[in-house]
Design goal:
The structure holds 3 protein chains of 3 kinds.
Chain A (H helix, E strand, L loop, with lengths): L5 E3 L2 E4 L3 H13 L5 E5 L13 E2 L2 H6 L11 E3 L2 E7 L4 E4 L11 E3 L1 H14 L3 E4 L3 E6 L5 E6 L2 E3 L5 E6 L3 E3 L2 E4 L6 H9 L11 E10 L9 E7 L8 E7 L4 E9 L9 H9 L2 H7 L3 E11 L2 H4 L4 E2 L2 E3 L15 H18 L5 H6 L2 H8 L3 H4 L4 H13 L40 H6 L13 E3 L3 H10 L4 H4 L5 E4 L6 E4 L9 H5 L5 E3 L14
Parallel strand pairs in A: 1-14, 2-3, 2-15, 3-9, 6-17, 15-22
Antiparallel strand pairs in A: 4-8, 5-8, 6-7, 10-11, 11-14, 12-13, 16-19, 16-20, 17-18, 18-19, 21-22, 23-26, 24-25
Chain B lengths: L2 E5 L9 H13 L2 E8 L3 H8 L4 E8 L8 H12 L4 E5 L2 H13 L4 E5 L1 E2 L5 E5 L4 E6 L6 E5 L14 E5 L9 E8 L12 E5 L10 H10 L2 E4 L1 H5 L20 E5 L5 H4 L7 E6 L6 H4 L2 E4 L2 H12 L1
Helix pairs in contact in B: 3-4, 5-9
Chain C lengths: L1 E5 L2 E3 L21 E3 L1 H15 L5 E8 L4 H10 L3 E6 L6 H15 L3 E5 L10 H9 L3 E11 L2 E8 L2 E8 L2 E5 L11 H9 L2 E5 H4 L8 E6 L8 E3 L2 H10 L4
Parallel strand pairs in C: 1-4, 1-6, 4-5, 5-11, 6-10, 7-10
Antiparallel strand pairs in C: 2-3, 7-8, 8-9
Helix pairs in contact in C: 2-5, 3-4
Classes of the chains: A alpha+beta, B alpha/beta, C alpha/beta.
Chain lengths: ~525, ~300, ~250
């Protein structure tokens, strides 16, 4: 028995992203008498979420008919699509593949859209609680998931109770929905505990980095959707950029790198900054200012990596399971559909049982199946991947083979015997000058007097093995400069600047020894993204 | 023509420099400038006020109950004088910020706080959102202007003049509901980082807690407060309350000298309002040189001892 | 006794405030709004006084549009007993706020009014002093410590020269500084309880307060950029340069 205070709900949802909020709204639409709570670790809705984003509106039409008369605050109809292949100074326009044609779609701020969804949910009497971290799972006596335990607050760096100490309550519910987004820390625990991934391939991820710019008048062409591939990446590194033109002289620009990259010296953040300095992009951004910046991991494994999404007392939905459609570069419509399906299932059966089969039979997974071979096609490098992707597209995924997904944490080559490709990168002049300057625009805030939320499970490895084998890649793949090796060569130590963390989860994913374990810091900590 | 009354800030024996800065602001407003000196045993203060440039006259109100600068008592006196003045000014120090709004309310007007710039009688600029925006502030038409003067934005007026001092009797008696008990100054020791006019800071380049002593020694020579970058604090070279920057203290000393600090935005946020920023760093590419008023590319382990011997 | 706490809805202190390109104001689109941090400290102090048995009721008051009810609910969730919204669509300056609060004071007759020392948007630091003046009661501004003794209080104030102590008779107005206390976290169940606590809405007109004589605020601009300075070659040049500028 617990000594914590308990609140009871019919459904508790962890994470106020598009999956969680759509689920909450649908639940109340189907069964208004249900008591539904949404727990969100960010200080306010939208503060921890970011995405390009171009969304397909059908799930919105389904969930909230009439939304087009009362849209979210940033919602620009797509006017034009462009795909570019870049070299250091040149560019070639590629034909737009069918799945990337965005006619009828909208450029949104996912964060602003979540704020908008949250107000719809609250109007239906969903209880939404931002600023509270679901730190642990509460298990029933029978060993099923019975809810969540909110993290204690007011704990000092050494674990001591500060004057403001407040014990976290428990929220008990017969059904818990995990909609934490990519690499959710509770989802990670549950997948392991219930071996939910034993019949699926490992998940593979990308890191997505984004900046919101205010540019000189006339540079932004509202409704223009641009994607690039090629430079600054080498042919063995998957990824590319997005440039979405908004209103009010704003451009959302970002870069995705597959986290299965092999070069231990690679710095994803630097690749992003290089792309901005390509003449085509530089011209758009020069004279502008950065409004906001951030990063978040992306789930790219699709169909093959989808774990079992039901477990006793709980469902894992959205990108915590991995529903993003990689070639479309869109996950929001899938997350929403998945959340709505989970709600319908619960409303009908009051149980988690049977959801997984239902999901695999649904439009969500049909869409993933169709494009399942596109991402793994790129394991053979850019050009072969491009050709295979074209074939898969033309055959609409109907070819009988299914390529398997490789794990990211074993993809790094060891330094011994490997040399980084020549990258052809340039001296750049656009802000931000480095990761520390970039993190400033994420407005990330952590009370420094709290336990470090990045747990290193075997710290000796950093200085005994990793430095020799990989030269501490965490100091390079973290977009927020959290990890540093300090001290002189003889006595180098890992320093963790946890206050910089933007909760992207890249370190938890890419660390080759899998000794970095991300856990929730005090509720309300982390980035404060605006309109991202 | 404007008639401006400045309420003088003093400690009983000497005039605070903030008063001379109010005079400069009053000069920018233009018009006749008087200074009111309230207190008990204030002859030397009144004389110092009378010496300030462009002051027409000093009104000295000496009464026992005015010895302590209690807003309730001083405001009564100021309001009694106010009828003849178009502008009433005080410094934006804790003294002025405590007193002037009380005067404004009793005069029935809104107050313009933290005046940075004045262009004539009715046009002012002031900072909002912690200085992230500057606004134009204009009083309602015909309204008396009550304001506080942002001391960091104004030079002190010179003191070669000699105005008349007029002694005036106090118009009110002590408010019984507020009583002064005492003041404990943070005297002795190093000046407080938050309010010191000179601050020296050290960064990670100091490399050890022992080396940080060099910063303390130099600061003591200069009578300066001591700060540090987050990197130095994280590395354990000095305590957390010395951190200057976005997540530490935001300070605006007249002189800020940074040794071995690279100048990441997070640190610069803490010093962007400093008067003069001096940077000493081995790395000529360090971002701090982009905002420093005076930069010296050099090894702090050489520069600090050199400075000490030059200042001996 | 009753304690009245003034709270203001402001742009959250974490937000990087930007001036709109046309200078009409700052960009508040999509921006997080919160209770002014100093007001949270004021409320925390009131709650501690109540928990010590020296007050029976803590009332939070805010002047603004209906959006400020969100901040009043936060105050109720922290532990205030009831809330009053002084409803107005105008942007009020401190004198009007003080006049409106005075009307509430006349109705509620609190023993203590605690405000934050300044709001982090306008940075005026005037409301507490103005309210005390209009009420003809003591003011104790920038307080970092307060000890109640029956009908009076000893307040320690943070001033430039150090710490000043004054004694004031209640009822009085106190404005709090950062070091007064560290506000408590809100417990989740208390958020639910706050929804059921009373929140009264009174319009500024009903209170009989006219908004007049406001200062005309316009032309928002970003702060002047620091210009790149000069480089010197050695310590001696540095010292000379500082002496020339009157800094040494």
């Amino acid at each position: 028995m617990t000594d914590r205070e308990i609140m009871k709900y019919d459904v508790v949802i962890v994470g106020a992203g598009p999956a969680g909020l759509s689920c909450a709204i649908r639940l109340k639409q189907q069964k208004p008498e249900l008591m539904v709570a949404v727990i969100e670790k960010s200080s306010e809705i939208g503060a921890h979420i970011l995405s390009g984003a171009v969304i397909e509106p059908q799930p919105l039409d389904d969930l909230l008919p009439g939304w087009r008369e009362d849209p979210p605050s940033i919602c620009i109809p797509v006017e034009k699509d462009e795909i570019w292949l870049l070299s250091q100074t040149g560019r070639w326009r590629l034909p737009t593949p069918p799945q990337q044609k965005n006619h009828g779609n909208f450029i949104v701020s996912l964060g602003a859209m979540c704020v908008w969804l949250a107000s719809k949910a609250e109007a239906l009497e969903v209880d939404i609680f931002p600023g509270y971290a679901a730190a642990e799972i509460h298990y029933t006596a029978e060993g099923a998931v019975g809810g969540v335990i909110i993290g204690d607050m007011g704990i000092g760096r050494e674990g001591e109770h500060k004057d403001t100490y407040m014990q976290g309550i428990e929220i008990h519910a017969p059904i818990t929905i995990l909609s934490e987004g990519v690499r959710g820390h509770l989802s990670k625990q549950l997948i392991k505990k219930y071996a939910l991934d034993k019949d699926s391939d490992p998940q593979t991820y990308g890191i997505g980095m984004k900046e919101l710019w205010r540019v000189q008048p006339g540079k932004s062409k509202p409704g223009l959707v641009q994607h690039t591939a090629g430079w600054p990446l080498d042919s063995k590194t998957y990824g590319g950029s997005f440039i979405y033109h908004l209103d009010k002289d704003r451009i959302a620009i970002g870069f995705v790198c597959g986290l299965d990259y092999e070069d231990p010296e690679f710095v994803p953040f630097e690749a992003f900054q290089q792309m901005k300095n390509h003449p085509m992009v530089h011209e758009m951004l020069e004279g502008g200012e950065i409004l906001s910046s951030g990063a978040r991991a992306i789930a790219e494994g699709g169909y093959q990596s989808l774990p079992k999404t039901e477990l006793p007392g709980a469902l894992i939905i959205g990108d915590s399971a991995g529903t993003l459609n990689v070639p479309k570069i869109k996950g929001t419509h899938q997350a929403m559909r998945c959340g709505m399906l989970a709600a319908e299932h619960i409303a009908e059966t009051s149980s988690a049982v049977g959801f997984d089969a239902r999901l695999r039979d649904s439009a969500v997974v049909r869409e993933l199946y169709k494009v399942r071979n596109i991402r793994p096609a790129f394991y053979k490098g850019f050009w072969r991947g491009f050709i295979r992707a074209a074939i898969e597209t033309v055959t609409a995924g109907k070819l009988p083979t299914t390529l398997s997904i490789h794990p990211d944490d074993s993809s790094l080559k060891k330094l011994d015997g490997y040399s980084s490709p020549h990258r052809n990168w340039v001296d750049r002049d656009l802000p931000p000058r480095d990761r520390l300057a970039s993190v400033y625009f994420a407005t990330t805030a952590h009370d420094e007097d709290q336990p470090v939320h990045l747990q290193i499970l075997e710290p000796d490895i950093c200085t005994s093995r990793c430095v020799k084998e990989y030269n501490n890649p965490c100091t390079r793949f973290c977009p927020a400069h959290v990890y540093e090796m300090v001290g002189d060569d003889a006595a180098k130590q890992l320093q963790i600047n946890s206050a910089n963390c933007v909760h992207c989860k890249t370190c938890d994913i890419k660390d080759p020894y899998q000794i970095i374990n991300w856990v929730t810091p005090e509720g309300g900590s982390g980035p404060n993204y605006q309109n991202m | 023509m404007s008639r401006i009354l400045i309420i003088a800030e003093h400690d009983g024996s000497s005039l605070n420099l903030s008063t001379a800065k109010c005079v400069t602001c009053a000069q920018a407003i233009g018009g006749e400038i008087d200074i009111a000196v309230l207190g008990h045993g204030i002859d030397s203060v009144a004389a110092a006020a009378a010496a300030l440039d462009s002051v027409s006259k000093v009104i000295a109100i000496d009464a026992q109950h005015l010895a302590a600068p209690l807003a309730v008592n001083w405001a009564s006196e100021a309001v009694a004088l106010s009828a003849e003045y178009t502008h009433l000014l005080g410094p934006s120090t804790t003294f002025g910020r405590d007193l002037m709004p009380r005067i404004a309310a009793l005069c029935g007007v809104n107050q313009i706080s933290d005046i940075m710039e004045a262009n004539g009688a009715n046009s002012f600029k002031r900072p909002v959102y912690a200085g992230n925006a500057i606004v134009q502030a204009e009083p309602a038409s015909g309204a008396r202007v009550v304001g506080t003067v942002r001391v960091a934005s104004w030079k002190a007026a010179g003191d070669g003049a000699s105005a008349a001092v007029e002694n005036v009797a106090a118009s009110s008696s002590a408010a019984s509901h507020t009583r002064y008990v005492g003041l404990t100054s943070e005297g002795g020791g190093r000046p407080d980082l938050q309010s010191a006019p000179k601050v020296i800071s050290g960064g990670r380049a100091l490399a050890s807690e022992e080396n940080f002593q060099m910063i303390y020694k130099l600061a003591d020579k200069l009578g300066a407060g001591v700060g540090a970058s987050r990197a130095a604090v994280d590395a354990g070279y000095c305590p957390n309350d010395m951190q200057v920057g976005q997540t530490g203290k935001i300070i605006s000393p007249d002189l800020y000298i940074a040794f071995g600090i690279s100048g990441a935005i997070q640190h610069v946020t803490g010093i962007k309002d400093a008067g003069t920023i001096v940077a000493v760093n081995k790395d000529s590419e360090a971002p701090i040189f982009e905002i420093a008023d005076i930069g010296l590319v050099g090894d702090l382990f050489n520069v600090i001892p050199e400075l000490e011997s030059l200042l001996a | 006794m009753k304690i009245l706490i003034g709270i203001k809805r402001v742009v959250d202190y974490n937000v990087r405030v930007r001036v709109l390109p046309d200078g009409s104001g700052v960009d508040t689109d999509g921006v997080k709004m919160s209770v002014n941090p100093f007001d949270e400290i004021a409320l925390e102090e009131a709650l501690r006084i109540k928990e010590a048995g020296n007050a029976e009721e803590v009332i939070v008051v805010s002047a603004g549009g209906d959006e400020c009810q969100q901040q009043l609910r936060t105050g109720l969730a922290m532990g205030a007993d009831r809330a009053i919204q002084i409803q107005t669509s105008e942007s009020l300056q401190p004198l009007s706020v003080a006049r409106a609060f005075l009307k509430i004071i006349e109705r509620e007759e609190p023993g203590l009014v605690i405000l934050g020392k300044q709001a982090i948007d306008d940075d005026n630091s005037q409301t507490a002093q103005m309210l005390a003046a209009l009420w003809d009661r003591p003011q104790a501004t920038f307080a970092s410590r307060m000890e109640l003794n029956g009908n009076s209080a000893v307040v320690t104030r943070e001033v430039d020269a150090g710490l000043e102590t004054i004694e004031i008779d209640l009822p009085a107005v106190v404005s709090v500084d950062l070091r007064m206390n560290e506000p408590r976290f809100v417990k989740l169940p208390d958020i639910m309880k706050a929804k059921r606590k009373p929140l009264e809405v009174i319009s500024l007109d009903e209170l009989g307060v006219a908004v007049e004589g406001q200062i005309n605020v316009s032309q928002f601009s970003p702060p002047p950029q620091r210009e790149k300075g000069i480089m010197v070659d050695d310590a001696a040049q540095l010292v000379q340069e500082l002496k020339n500028r009157g800094l040494l």
